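Q: I'm building a small set of examples for a reading group on sequence design. Run inverse folding on the following structure and report the sequence directly after it, with nothing in between.
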């Protein structure tokens, strides 16, 4: 069970998104059933009868399982819904697998069953495993599970296995090991998702308003990162980032022949054009300096990636560096786009091809009609 679930996680989550803290143990569902008065009540509270959450459990099945035997649970902290679904698909035919459910820290029963009920076990980060132990206990004796350590080493799932000192976390000395703290985590998670989702949603909408090709280039950069399998493919993500930034400059501050503030703002000088755009749309000196610094930082990140790629040093490009590049790109894009309110002059340039094709289609249709028997071709009166 343990190895199959870990393998499913390693195969479902891409390396750059592979970071989870894992807890495992027997879920105290029978005790919960006794507290609430029935197995049905325990199943309803765990499956979030009054909460919106993602789950692959069927209520009647879970009730039957609670009544029949102890249920082992493995909790993966910080797993995306898409990765959880991919894991479920890989595991659903296993005889021992019962299902998956999203944990909500604000649900008291989730805290009692999944968080307080079972201890943290290890951490998975990219291609490495970190087994938890309590460092202060080593002063008395080495009670670490070296057998398990060697089992993970020989499993072939990880490039390296390490020990990680969990200190006093989840002990009587841990003042944060309580429902209140995990409820705070849950609320913070929702607030962050709401804030970031709103900013990203506005960025995508404004990109489409400015030029649909902006959205296409942003999509290309993110998709290339999510689907990369080699360091060479990873290095090419910066090219998509550069193309997006250049197109953003074209939309916000089209090229000009004359210099602005002593700097060229032609087609090649896209960074200077973004600086000029900031200078013309921000009155606060502090805000202007921060935005220009962010644009400059983004440009340096892109230049560094391009330089490594052009030199063939793909192995020097890490997924964490590219991930930070994408985050910087999104932050800068949102900052720049939101400097001006929407509703400006409509840009017809992205649609010229479709408009011309439509007009050409009408012209050809008219010509075909005029060539039919009884028709004539001639110059229409002006």
């Amino acid at each position: 069970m343990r190895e199959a679930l870990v393998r499913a996680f390693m195969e479902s989550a891409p390396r750059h998104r592979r970071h989870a803290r894992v807890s495992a143990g027997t879920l105290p569902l029978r005790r919960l059933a006794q507290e609430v008065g029935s197995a049905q009540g325990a199943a309803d509270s765990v499956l979030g009868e009054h909460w919106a959450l993602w789950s692959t459990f069927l209520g009647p099945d879970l009730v039957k399982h609670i009544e029949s035997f102890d249920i082992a649970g493995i909790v993966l902290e910080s797993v995306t819904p898409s990765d959880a679904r991919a894991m479920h698909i890989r595991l659903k035919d296993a005889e021992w697998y019962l299902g998956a459910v999203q944990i909500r820290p604000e649900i008291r029963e989730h805290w009692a069953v999944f968080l307080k009920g079972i201890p943290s076990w290890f951490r998975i980060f990219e291609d490495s495993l970190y087994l938890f132990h309590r460092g202060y206990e080593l002063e008395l004796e080495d009670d670490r599970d070296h057998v398990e350590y060697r089992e993970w080493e020989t499993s072939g799932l990880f490039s390296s296995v390490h020990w990680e000192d969990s200190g006093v976390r989840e002990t009587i000395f841990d003042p944060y090991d309580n429902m209140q703290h995990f409820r705070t985590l849950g609320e913070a998670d929702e607030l962050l998702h709401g804030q970031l989702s709103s900013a990203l949603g506005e960025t995508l909408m404004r990109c489409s308003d400015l030029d649909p090709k902006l959205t296409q280039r942003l999509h290309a950069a993110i998709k290339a990162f999510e689907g990369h399998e080699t360091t060479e493919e990873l290095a090419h993500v910066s090219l998509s980032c550069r193309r997006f930034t250049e197109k953003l400059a074209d939309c916000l501050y089209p090229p000009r022949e004359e210099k602005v503030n002593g700097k060229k703002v032609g087609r090649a000088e896209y960074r200077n054009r973004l600086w000029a755009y900031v200078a013309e749309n921000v009155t606060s000196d502090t805000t202007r300096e921060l935005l220009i610094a962010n644009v400059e930082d983004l440009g340096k990140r892109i230049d560094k990636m391009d330089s490594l790629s052009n030199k063939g040093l793909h192995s020097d490009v890490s997924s964490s560096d590219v991930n930070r590049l994408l985050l910087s790109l999104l932050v800068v894009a949102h900052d720049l786009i939101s400097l001006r309110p929407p509703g400006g002059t409509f840009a017809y340039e992205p649609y010229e091809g479709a408009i011309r094709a439509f007009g050409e289609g009408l012209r050809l249709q008219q010509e075909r009609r005029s060539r039919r028997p009884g028709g004539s071709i001639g110059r229409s009166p002006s």
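Residues 238 and 305 are 6 Å apart (CA to CA).
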